[in-house]
């Protein structure tokens, strides 16, 4: 999980319990669910946050989960076509380098900086998060994930909610939470894409060659022969 507290300058905002729970009259703790709002595209998230800004709930702690394509500000990684792998390499320090922006991600936990960035309390968009990240030299991608801990509303594309691997990677736990899917008739296509994989003929031929080598050299032959048969049948 990667946290924030939001305080309203007008003093009208209800006190936030850091553990994201409220006390019941009998002293027990009542868990307050988050609202996960899924959309088909990132552009639709912008439209929804703009509408949220016009409501009385504009001050509510929120975050937006999106890909590195939209949030990475590292001068090298952000200009690469392979942002995910380069980011992971930096975080693992494979080449003796690290990402200073990642280590500053905690600076974005001060949620009020986002909401009062323009002098008024309002819901923010990905562009606002990235802009503040540039000012603070802080990673907007991981900063948004940290903001999720105390967020009441989490905006994200459909696949962040539908794909179990992405849910695990992003530390998204949907049990006992509220899930809203905007334009839900698009969900079938998104679900289909989440469990689909595209492979080229060239990749299949390369895989077959490698599997040929494994089988011919008696390397785990019983495991590689069925895989080679699959490649051959697809080709």
Automatic annotation (TrEMBL):
Residue ranges, annotated region (Disordered): 1-26
Residue spans of biased composition, Basic and acidic residues class: 12-26
rRNA-binding recorded as keyword: no
Gene3D superfamilies hit by this protein: P-loop containing nucleotide triphosphate hydrolases (3.40.50.300)
Positions of the Helicase ATP-binding domain: 1-231
A biological process term (GO) from this entry: nucleotide-excision repair
Keywords tagged on the record: ATP-binding, Hydrolase, Nucleotide-binding
InterPro entries named in the record: DinG/Rad3-like (IPR045028), Helic_SF1/SF2_ATP-bd_DinG/Rad3 (IPR014013), Helicase-like_DEXD_c2 (IPR006554), P-loop_NTPase (IPR027417), RAD3-like_helicase_DEAD (IPR010614)
GO molecular function, one term: DNA helicase activity
Domain of life: Eukaryota
Keyword Flavoprotein in annotation: no
Entry's Gene Ontology cellular component terms: nucleus
The protein, known as: FANCJ protein
């Amino acid at each position: 999980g990667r946290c924030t507290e939001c305080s309203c300058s007008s003093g009208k905002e209800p006190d936030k319990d850091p553990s994201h729970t409220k006390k019941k009259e009998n002293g027990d703790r009542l868990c307050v669910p988050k609202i996960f709002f899924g959309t088909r595209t990132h552009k639709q998230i912008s439209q929804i946050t703009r509408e949220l800004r016009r409501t009385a709930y504009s001050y509510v702690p929120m975050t937006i989960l999106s890909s590195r394509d939209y949030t990475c500000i590292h001068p090298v990684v952000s200009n690469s076509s392979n942002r995910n792998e380069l980011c992971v390499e930096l975080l693992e320090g494979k080449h003796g380098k690290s990402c200073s922006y990642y280590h500053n991600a905690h600076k974005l936990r001060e949620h009020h900086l986002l909401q009062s960035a323009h002098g008024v309390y309002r819901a923010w968009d990905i562009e606002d998060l990235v802009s503040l990240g540039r000012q603070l030299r802080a990673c907007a991608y991981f900063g948004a994930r940290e903001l999720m801990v105390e967020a009441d509303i989490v905006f994200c594309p459909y696949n962040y909610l539908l794909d179990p691997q992405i849910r695990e990677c992003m530390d998204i736990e949907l049990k006992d939470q509220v899930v809203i899917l905007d334009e839900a008739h698009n969900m079938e296509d998104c679900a289909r894409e989440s469990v689909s994989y595209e492979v080229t003929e060239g990749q299949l031929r390369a895989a077959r060659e490698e599997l040929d080598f494994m089988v011919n050299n008696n390397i785990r032959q019983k495991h590689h022969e069925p895989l080679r048969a699959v490649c051959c049948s697809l080709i």
